[in-house]
Amino acid sequence: MKYELIHELQVPKVGFGTWSIGGQSTPDLSLDSVSRAALRSALELGYTHFDTAEYYADGHAEELLGQTIREMGVRREDLFLTTKVSPEHLHADDILRACDRSLRRLGVDFVDLYLIHWPNPRIKLEESFGALNRLVREGKVRYLGVSNFKLKMLQESMALSETPLLTNQVPYSLPEKTYLDNGVIAYCQQNDILVTAYSPVKFRNLNVNATLKAIAAAHGATSYQVALAWLIAQPRIITIPMSFDPAHQKENLEAMNLELSASETEQLSNLYSR
After folding, report:
1. At what angle are helices 60-72 and 92-106 packed, to 10 degrees?
2. Which label site among 6, 16, 81, 201 has the fewest CB atoms less than 10 Å from its CB?
3. Helix (H) or strand (E) holding 171
4. How many CB atoms lie within 10 A of CB 45?
5. Are 75 and 84 in contact (CB under 8 A)?
6. Residue 274: what pLDDT?
7. DSSP letter (8 states) at residue 110
């Protein structure tokens, strides 16, 4: 396992996202069996960072994750758990209640990282961070972060957080460079904020792109592994791919062992240039 060391904390370069576990925006109980199997295989393969949210399957993803961790007897101290508060719950009292609900569903006393899932322009960040800072002081949350924040709100969040803001979780992949183009990723890298890249390999033509295929073939790897390796080779970048397939889960972890040359990295960086 490779880690990003930040604020005396080791965060795995590759974690496991739980979007679609137990449903999407609402619970789908017909997915419970395959969801539990996916979580079990991820834990067995050695994933330790699990990213979830109260929004995922309306809390059911958190429930399934917590249940699977307990069933497998995984020690809490061996895991790094991230969850998120939804934008409609960013008033102070709502945040406190939302966090307590997430802790109950996960079956833990604290989460390692608690994020604002999306900004809500109708609720002042000062109010939200008042509650978030309280959660840290109470020991229910170790670190704070945000998700889908542009530069201005990210800077405001940094000023309001009583502890160093750990991450900004944004879409980032070979073709998806919105947060690179708007300066957010460079700002995070320059200010010791992790960029947690979500949807890192979810794009069309991944397996038919000639450049990707050639680089993958040269390393005896898959195109997905090359796309992940390009991401995590960058400083202050971690990622949270999700797969129900144990073979793909294993491939995603093994992408950490793929060393790209400077020439290959440059080719990939320019692959989808606008």
Report:
1. 40
2. 6
3. strand 167-171
4. 14
5. no
6. 59
7. -
Residue 129, in any domain of the structure: yes
3-class state of residue 230 by DSSP: helix
pLDDT, one tens digit per residue, over 89-111 is: 999 999 999 999 999 999 999 99
Residue among 102, 30, 117, 23 at smallest CA distance from 66: 102
For residue 165 the two structure tokens come to: 């803001």
Residue 7 CA, chain-centre distance (Å), reads 18
User: Which are the contacts of 195, defined by CB distance < 8 A and separation ≥ 6?
Assistant: 167, 168, 169, 170, 172, 179, 184, 185, 188, 189, 236, 237, 238
Task: Give the DSSP H or E segment for 198.
Answer: strand 194-198
265 located within any domain: no
Contact 71, 35 (CB under 8 A): no
CA separation for the pair 268, 262 (Å, rounded) = 10
pLDDT score at 144:
98
CATH number for the domain harbouring residue 167:
3.20.20.100
Question: How far is it, in rounded angstroms, from Cα 13 to Cα 159?
Answer: 26
209-224 pLDDT, tens digit each: 899 999 999 999 999 9
C-alpha–C-alpha distance, residues 33 and 159, integer Å: 43
Tell me which of 47, 55, 56, 224 is the catalytic residue: 56
Q: How many residues does the chain have?
A: 274
- Give the span between the Cα atoms of 273 and 17, in whole angstroms: 27
Residues 6+ apart with CB under 8 A from 175: 203, 271, 272
* Domain range enclosing 39: 11-203+230-249
Is 143 a catalytic site residue?
no
| Count of domains observed in the chain | 1
